[in-house]
Design the sequence.
């Protein structure tokens, strides 16, 4: 079984990789990539960030991270930056965003689905590897 230190390093690696992709999208991309792919990938980015600090299994975590994205979208809808006097070009203004869009919520849902798919694929690989080795055969943890 993978120890917590390796899990944290993998999460940090995923975070750094996704952050680099998000920065490239923000700097260089236009159209579909910038409008949608960046919004889909921001949820796995946040998930990897949380996983650096929280490594225990948590089925609820991807949905919680998606909820943070939806909350940010609701704050944009209610124009929180304008209410608080936060300039749009400031770091906080960029992070909170300035315009709400229902398509962003769909992108966040796709990001959550992407996380669940990755967890399922990685989980299946983990179980398959150990089942073939006989490590879990006949135990209560055997999924089949």
Sequence:
């Amino acid at each position: 079984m993978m120890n917590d230190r390796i899990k944290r390093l993998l999460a940090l690696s995923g975070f750094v990789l996704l952050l680099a992709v998000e920065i490239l999208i923000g700097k260089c991309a236009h159209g579909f990539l910038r409008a949608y792919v960046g919004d889909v990938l921001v949820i796995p980015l946040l998930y990897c960030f949380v996983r650096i600090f929280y490594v225990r299994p948590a089925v609820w975590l991807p949905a919680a991270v998606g909820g943070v994205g939806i909350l940010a979208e609701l704050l944009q809808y209610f124009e929180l930056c304008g209410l608080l006097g936060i300039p749009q070009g400031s770091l906080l203004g960029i992070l909170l965003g300035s315009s709400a869009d229902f398509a962003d919520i769909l992108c966040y849902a796709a990001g959550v689905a992407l996380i669940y798919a990755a967890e399922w694929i990685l989980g299946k690989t983990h179980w398959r590897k150990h089942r073939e080795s006989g490590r879990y055969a006949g135990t209560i943890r055997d999924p089949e």
User: Anything to note?
Assistant: The chain has one domain: 4-133. Confidence is low (pLDDT under 50) at residues 136-144.
